[in-house]
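Known limitations

Files may contain more than one protein. Parsers should not assume a single record per file. Below, a two-record file is shown to illustrate correct handling: read the sequence, read the token line, then continue until end of file.
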Amino acid sequence: MRILHLNDLYDPRIGSSIRQMYQESERLRELGHEAAVLSVTQDTGLLAGATFGEQEVLGSRVFLAHSDYNPRWRGWVGLDNPRTRAALAAVLDEYRPDVIHTHLIHTHLSYAALAAARRRGAGVVFTSHDVMTFCYQKLTCFHGGPAAGGELRDYPAHWSKCIPCQRLRFRPGRNAAIRRILARDVDRFTVVSDELGRAISANGIRVDRTVWNAIRPQRRLPTEAEVAAFRVARGLEGAQTIAIGGRLHEQKGVGQLLQMVAKLAGEFPRLRLMVMGKRDVYDREFAPLAAELGVAERVVPTGWLDGDELQQAYAAVDVFVTPSICFDTFGLVNLEAMEHSKPVVATVFGGSPEVVLDGQTGFIVNPFDVDGFAGRIAELLRDPERARAMGAAGHRRMVDFFTIERLTDEFIEEYDLAAAAARARSGTARSRA
């Protein structure tokens, strides 16, 4: 079978979901299938001045189109982007995929790509990694915020909520158009967590299946000597270390976490918070709050990490935390911490409760309850044996349920169903002719 992944992002250093796409492609090739990627770049230099090019990334053939515009128009361009039409048509003509597997396409490749794939006779599988089928950004309005204690689950989008949030970015009819396109042009619609499926279903979109995210385990984990050297280099030697990783944003709960550190500081004088994300973002958006709370010297901002250094960072952690106050659809960083046998204290919002088992592999806590979240972190810092036991249980859970082999097998089932639907359409068309 020949599979073409569509994704607005192609650089595996950007995030875990991009790495997962390449890991699945690698596994598909191991099983005798073909897999390639169509993506976009804003760097015309990468294409040597052309509007379309090709390169290899982690063993995958990657077709690259050029697309760049002011993101305020995403509500319009995300439905149909004229900048990528020719590239999509050329790739469909040359690669002739049996199945199109779309991931993040709401900014550049656009929902119009689904109709183009269907017209060319391909089966179409759509994986929703986020809430962008009905929301313009990270979903934050559903829980009611501090006023409601984060207890609401108000998922349906409505102009009365969206217009005050998006203002001039709001495009009337966007969500209705997306629903029509998905219903018409997608053979199989999958989500990365059951909770994401509930949110999407609440907005009138058919969900066929949950396929949990996964990782391909590292071929080699860091040695004790490498981890010790990392700790020394980062000023973590002898420290009790908690960490947050990924994109740094207020919606990821970084502000809440700094408040937690302030509450924990008195009991844990050796406590350090490792912030594994872009240093300039931390310095600009969160360093002032850390100083205001009196915890600036307890924070170790590493900057963006990848490769061996990222693995060493995970291995150097005592407790990993994901205190997101937005709808965190899955939290692949949870799995990456679990691979290193680390207990995780994670948000109640989104898919983390499906990954982290409360009281077994870590804890699930409402991050608006700063005292409660900090208290769970404290329990693990006070009891290293319990923390290690939870981390070991998390590692077993990762191996049992979240491997790339399981994910690929499930997607092959989806590809077969989508390809069969495409063949049925073709047969119907011939019979009508």
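...continuing to the second record:
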Amino acid sequence: MIELLNTIDSFVWGPAMIALLLGSHLFLTFKTGFIQRKLPKAIRLSFSSDANAEGDISHFGALATALAATIGTGSIVGVATAILAGGPGAVFWMWLTGVFGIATKYSEVFAAIKYRVKDHKGEMLGGAMYIWERAFSKKEGKAPWWARLGAIAFAAFASIAAIGTGSAVQASAMTGIIASNAPWIPAWAIGIAIVVLVSVVIFGGVESISKVCEKLVPFMAVAYALGCIVILALNAPFLGAALGLIFECAFTSKAAFGGAVGSGLMMALQFGCARGLFSNESGLGSAPIVASAAATRNPAQQALVAMTGTFWSTVVICALTGVVLVSTLVAHPDIQGEILANPTLFTGAQLASTAFAKIPFVGTPILVFGMVAFSYTTILGWSYYGNRCITYLFGMKAIRPYQVLYVAVAFLGAIGVGDVVWTISDIGNALMAIPNIIVVLLLSGLVARETRHYVYEGHLDEVDETPIPVVAGK
């Protein structure tokens, strides 16, 4: 069964998926008029609030919650895995994927705000499932069968992915890093602690999750970034060689580190793009779910704010991690010997741990802090995604059982039974991206047209007067 799941996982995250997502990034960059050039304005807008705008949480609250889910183990271990499999050149392609992925994040959030709805309590609901339903509805308000199928497929796959990606995998990462540095703490005790710390937040709903993320995410991201900058300062004599190696391996067939790491241009491209796409989640359809709850005057405002998430997660955090790892590999050639000794067993987690441990005093503490903080906030962020998707499928009565299952799976992941769940959730990630990307591409003309009006013609403060429909509660 595990072998079959791994085969499916390799297929769905193969060249076709990478081509779909990367191609969408490039196409939507063109359609939106290279919206990336509005990044400075978007960053300023992230810290603004509007008491008169309609929504449940602030611009920054929605961004922080999305970043909490995005900046996870992929920002450290995922980068190390890309370097291990694709060589230093993978760092460049990961970074470039983040740059172009900004346009996809903007487009999918724009569509989600445009077609969001309210529940009977007045709380906002949004995401690809509601886009499919509302964008193609007939005059009588009923969506055609194929639109309903797209909506159900996205919600179902996202619910599965949330349990694995957001719960089991992150809990397993937290346990692994804590146990390696404090082996006297049993895994079950760490699991219980995770369950308690997660439960006290997620059972309070989106307001509770966003409040915690607003405080924790900026602190953890800035602290980790500063830690990486300290390491880069310590590695200063090797930075030139490291950056040169990253660019050289990105465009040539040269194998890095004497063939110990990386397999040339195609592997660098494949793994750099794959891990970049996974790290920033542009195109997966996850961030639009929480962005739909934001108080915003029009779809363009929150879409601009949301696109900064891709910039922070991949263009900044993942890039810093990548340069830290490559410069440390250049500075400490003995790591290559460890990789050569166990070429099939040496994992991304081992590479990250080994590389950071080479930095005296600060290396390991930075890694431990980053892994624990990133994993915890990812559990919080993805809990909201799963919550909203399960509500769409089965109604509000399903929320509490799903939350209980979510924290139970976190405990199972912490005690080491999350491997199968991880593979299933990874498959779910790819499969949820397909209906999301399709609907965003179908609506790209509308997004481009309204972006011209709101962003490029100076109407960004205009209030969208379109009524937000109320869906019947179950």
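Parsers that stop after the first record will miss the second one. For reference, the second record is described as follows. Residues 224 and 269 are 26 Å apart (CA to CA).
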